[in-house]
Amino acid sequence: MSLVQWENKYSVKIPEIDKQHQHLIELLNSLYDSMRIGESKKNLQHILQELITYTDMHFKTEEKYFEQYNYSKKSTHKTKD
């Protein structure tokens, strides 16, 4: 059972970013499924670490595109609150 399903309306029309977004959804669904069935703490820690690592890489990729294409709203996306 998935928590989130990828839909074309989520697409940003940049294949690399869309692929990463899809993978993030897969990781989120994996975490959700693991928690739902009560998998061991070790498995949950592994999924959470992968989610953290992949999310960091994804944001770096997005920031690269922001700079490369001089995205006008990049400061809004890069704000850390």
Description:
By secondary structure, the chain is an all-alpha fold. The protein has a domain at 40-69. The chain has helices at residues 15-36, 41-68, 74-78. The model has no long low-confidence stretch (mean pLDDT 90).
For the record, give the distance between the C-alpha atoms at the N and C termini, rounded to a whole number.
32 Å
Instruction: Encode the helix/strand succession as letters.
Output: HHH
Give a short account of the largest sheet: none
Shape verdict: elongated
How many helices does DSSP assign?
A: 3
Average pLDDT figure: 90
Number of β-strand runs? 0
Question: What share of the residues lie within helices?
Answer: 55-70%
Radius of gyration: 15 Å
List strands and helices in order, with pairings.
Blueprint: H1 15-36, H2 41-68, H3 74-78
Descriptive labels:
3 helices; 0% strand; mainly alpha; 81 residues
In short:
By secondary structure, the protein is mainly alpha-helical. It has helices at 15-36, 41-68, 74-78.
